[in-house]
Each structure stands twice: as C-alpha cells, then as structure tokens.
TrEMBL record:
It comes from Medakamo hakoo. Its EC number is 7.1.2.2. This is one of the chains of the nonenzymatic component (CF(0) subunit) of the mitochondrial ATPase complex. This is H(+)-transporting two-sector ATPase. GO terms for cellular component: mitochondrial membrane; proton-transporting ATP synthase complex. The chain crosses the membrane at residues 12-32. It holds the Pfam family YMF19. Keywords: ATP synthesis, ATP-binding, CF(0), Hydrogen ion transport, Ion transport, Membrane, Mitochondrion, Nucleotide-binding, Translocase, Transmembrane, Transmembrane helix, Transport. Belongs to the ATPase protein YMF19 family. GO terms for molecular function: ATP binding.
Length: 161
C-alpha cells in the first residue's frame, strides 16, 4: 500500500506532526487565553452585583435578537441574489438558444424540411407507380396524410426557433 511505503513514510509522519503541533501551539498560545479572558470577565460581571444576572440576560437576549436580525437579512439578501441570478441565467440561455436557432441551425432546418418533403413526394410517386389501379381517393388520402405529417414537422421546427 502506498500509504505505508517505507521511503515516504517518514516525510509524511514529519509533516503530520509539524502541522498538528503548530496548530496545537496556536490554540494554546492565542485562542485559549482569549476564551479564558472572556470567561473571567463574565464571572466578574456576575459577582459584581445582583443586577449582573439581569444585565447578562438582557445582553444575551439583545445578542440573540441581533443574530436573528442579521441572519434574516442575510437570508433574504441571498435569496434575492439567487433568484435574480437564476432569472438572468434563464434569460441568457433563452437568448442564446434563439440566436443559435436563427443563425446556426437555419440552414439545417431548411435542409431537414426539404429532405422530408422530397421523401414524402418520392413515397407518393412510388405508390402511384406501384399501384396504378388503386382508387385515386385512396391515393389522395395517403398523400394528404403525408402532407399533414410534413406540416407538423414544419410547425415543430418553427416553434423551436
């Protein structure tokens, strides 16, 4: 296993110890003394007077209200930003799609419609040549069905633009 490779094990162990000991030093020398000062300050406030308890509760409630206010405003702001970004993105995608259909796919759509029309016409001619004795009304219904399919295909491509 590459994790237990004897060549790289010592360097990995060294850097692991280095970063963990560095993090431990930062926590012990900087973060824990700050917490200690805060706890001592709060303890002195409580000992100072009986009003300390009520003032501490008032301070706690003010902090809670301010936190909820900040969170509410941040949430509403982020919600508005997400909605506006989503709306702008949707508009951009729609514009790009329309431009692509108009510019890049215009010739492809025309070619497709032409090939569908030619195929329909060739099928109808093949039916007419293969079955000349078939009643003309039956042949015309087949031709009309083919034209209806051609019109539907054309309508779909124009809607996509």
């Amino acid at each position: 296993m590459p994790q237990l490779d004897k060549v790289t094990f010592f360097s990995q162990f060294f850097w692991l110890c280095f970063f963990y000991l560095g993090f431990y030093g930062v926590v012990v020398k900087q973060i824990l003394p700050r917490f200690g000062r805060i706890f001592k300050l709060r303890e002195n406030k409580l000992r100072g007077s009986s009003q300390g308890v009520t003032s501490l509760h008032q301070e706690k409630s003010k902090v809670g209200e301010s936190i909820s206010t900040v969170l509410d405003s941040g949430l509403s702001t982020s919600k508005q930003l997400v909605q506006s970004t989503l709306e702008k993105t949707t508009n951009w995608v729609d514009d790009v799609l329309k431009q692509t259909n108009v510019k890049d796919w215009k010739t492809a759509n025309k070619t497709y419609l032409t090939s569908v029309g030619e195929r329909s016409l060739s099928e109808n001619l093949a039916l007419t040549l293969a079955f000349p004795k078939v009643h003309p009304s039956l042949r015309s219904s087949v031709i009309l069905a083919q034209l209806a399919r051609f019109a539907q295909a054309k309508a779909k491509t124009t809607k996509a633009r």
